[in-house]
Every structure is written in C-alpha cells, then in structure tokens.
Amino acid sequence: MLPTLLYIHGLNSSPLSQKASQLSNVFQQLGWSAQLRVPALHHHPRQAIAQLEEAIAELGRPVLVGSSLGGYYATHLAERHGLQALVINPAVNPHRLFAGHLGTQQNHYTGETWELTLDHVAALSELEVPAPADPARFQVWLQTADETLDYRHAQSFYRGCALRIQAGGDHGFQGFAERLPALLAFAGFASSEWRDFDFSTL
User: Which residues have C-beta within 8 Å of that of residue 19, sequence separation ≥ 6?
Assistant: First the structure.
C-alpha cells in the first residue's frame, strides 16, 4: 500500500507555488494523485489547522511536508498525531515575528488581500510546541541564504533531527525538484516506483 502525503504551503502562498506544483506534477505523472493533498489554506491559523486536520483524517496517517509557515503547522500536527514530517525552511515561533507586520497582506498567487491581526498572532502562539520529542520522525531542509527567515533558528530548534543544510539558495528553496527523490524516500515510496522518472523535466 502506497504512503500518503500532505503538502502544507506557507503564508501568502497556495497550491500554485513552485514546490507544490512540482510535487503535484510528479504524483500525477506517476499515477499517485490519490496519495497527495495540497489544500489551499485559509490565512487564519485556526481555520488552516481545521482544514489540515480534515485532510489528515481523510488520508489516514500521511507524511507531512511543510514549507515556511507550513513547516510550523507541520511540526505542530506531527507532534499532535505522531506523524512523520519533512519541513523546508520552516518558521520557528512565527508569532514572535508577525507582531511587527500587522495590517494588509496579499497572497502572492491568488491576489487575495486580508488583514493580519493580533488574533492571527494569538492563534499562532497556541500552536507552539517544544522541540520534537521524537527527532527520528523529522527531516529538516534549510538553505543558508533564506532571505525571509534566519536558518539558524530552525537549525537550533530541530538540532536533534536529520538536518540537511545547503549553502546559498533562498526562502523558496532552490533545487527542490532535484531533491524530490529524497523526499519520496523519506515518505516511504519504494525507489522501484519512481527511479525511472526524470525529475529534471520539472
């Protein structure tokens, strides 16, 4: 039986983001579309978590893949449900960062505008968890030239986990397509199922 995977995008992102699109493309071409969910998350954390809980219930015990704020959500949910999680340039304690950025926001992909409020910040603080209790369930991908988040915060928080730190890159994580075989292996997809796939075409 094939594993299932839940991709969790970041703040002001969507299923149209490059990483989400590349992942969806791979699963579609391999005939695994039913094994993947990439929900379009609401900007408010409480509603986003409700959407993700619903997806987890649908998929059973999915492997979580979270980018940026999605990495924060993935960590919270992995700890709550005992799931595996691969987080990419994850936000650590984002409620401590967002208080200085209240006001109008715009989704980079949909054009939707919305207001970041103190209630968003409070909701994010409710999701805070300690460093992973079982580091073996986590893999953490960081790039040192992330222009949005200081990678060293995640390096410290996830220090007991499998860290994959690349020099350079950016917040979007350059070279994601080339790393997809490692993601599939972590998620438990047998290499015989995807080793002939040409990831360079993504």
Answer: 7, 9, 67, 88, 172, 173, 176
